[in-house]
Amino acid sequence: MKNFHDRGIIARYRQYLPVTDATPVVSLNEGSTPLIYSPRLSERVGRGCEIYIKYEGLNPTGSFKDRGMTMAISKAAEEGAKAVICASTGNTSAAAAAYAARAGVKCIVLLPAGKIAMGKLVQAFMYGAKVVAIDGNFDDALRLVREIGETEPISIVNSINPYRIDGQKTASFEIIEELGDAPEIHILPVGNAGNITAYWRGYVEFHAGNKSTKTPKMLGFQAAGSAPIFHNRIIDNPETVASAIRIGNPASWQLASNAIRESQGAIDIVTDIEILEAQRWLANHEGIFVEPASAASIAGLLKCVGEKTGAAFPAARFADGSKIVCTVTGHGLKDPDVAREQCGAIIPAKAEKDEILRHIA
Ligand code: AN7
């Protein structure tokens, strides 16, 4: 049998991950995503700063969750699990369903009814998961998953599963290898707060291993209507157009707070209007289409740069010539409905050259 696992994050970073020869590697060649230089964002920030976009939408299921899921499902398979379960705002369930399909284990996903972007919902079905939509939000779904995990022989693959964070930290390794060092600043959207925790762990590990000379300041952005860490209290009814980060009681709250504090970074908020503007701006100006939650990192950078925005980390604190990485976590095609609402009118025309030329003049 051919071994196709020479790609994927477990193959690339095996020595930094808790796997052994007994671990069956369940991979879809995730990771090694592009780090794209953004000339227009660099221009907007100015003072010689260089802005890079880590485009995680190019993972196999279209989001960064694949990095954690290759680990979580490989370990579940090693432990002989017959079924896995997760709560999700959509991307975790898509990744869990895909990797479970590949491992040949049953997958159950608990979703907040009516609050999952269409692309993610159809992914869970197509990969063959059992899809349960609860009459509640993500936080309710995660509580139920914890309760089910206590009594049933089903492995939990939410980021309370430590292997998830281990897999996701590999994005930092890639960035350090590509830039030749860690950036000065790293900006991320924050929902359940696992990813900012994971990136920080990756940066700290490579710094400790002398693979970088510094660690970045971690800047996290929550949606204004779903900002428990920013407000330092549980949000009972979180709301935002960025359904992926519609979370009121993040599982990795404390770890994320530690990452932000230890890195001398900051947590801040962006409004839905700022998120959608950033989403359109990035697609229009750099040709990078991301889902709304992902655009929170771009909206966040623009908030830092803007005047009188009250940013928690204003750009005056960026050192001249800083390298700044913004992670964009999921592909724009995940949420066609929110994107469609922002599109202009389609131009109807007869199939005639002259008429078309009149319309496009
Ligand atoms: C596109 O899929 O929580 O702060 O259940 O899908 O690590 O939670 C998704 C989160 C950012 C936030 N961007 O990351 C889920 C889920 C996108 C996301 C986040 C998510 P975390």
Structural description of this entry:
The structure is a single chain. With 361 residues, the chain is an alpha/beta fold. It is 42% helix and 14% strand. The protein contains 15 helices and ten strands. It has helices spanning 9-12, 39-45, 65-78, 91-103, 118-126, 138-151, 162-168, 170-179, 194-208, 228-231, 253-262, 272-286, 292-305, 336-341, 353-360, and strands spanning 35-37, 50-55, 83-87, 106-112, 130-134, 155-156, 185-189, 217-223, 266-270, 323-328. The chain has a six-stranded mixed sheet with strand order 1-2-10-7-8-9, sandwiched between helices. Strands 5-4-3-6 form a four-stranded parallel sheet. Strand 7 (185-189), helix 9 and strand 8 form a beta-alpha-beta unit. Helix 3 (65-78) packs parallel to helix 4, helix 9 (194-208) packs across helix 11 (253-262) and helix 12 packs across helix 13 (292-305). The protein is globular, with a radius of gyration of 20 Å. The model has no long low-confidence stretch (mean pLDDT 97). The structure holds ligand AN7. Ligand AN7 binds next to helix 4, helix 9 and helix 13.
Report the count of strand segments: 10
Could you tell me the strand content as a percent range? 5-15%
| Overall morphology | globular
Straight-line N-to-C gap? 58 Å
What is the quaternary state of this protein? Answer: single chain
**Could you say which structural class the secondary elements and strand pairing correspond to?**
alpha/beta
**Mean pLDDT across every amino acid position:** 97
Number of H/I helices: 15
Tell me roughly what share of residues is in helical segments: 40-55%
How do the strands of the widest beta sheet line up side by side? 1-2-10-7-8-9
String of helices and strands? HEHEHEHEHEHEHHEHEHHEHHEHH
Ligand kinds: ligand AN7
Low-confidence stretches: none
Measured on Cα atoms, how large is the radius of gyration? Answer: 20 Å
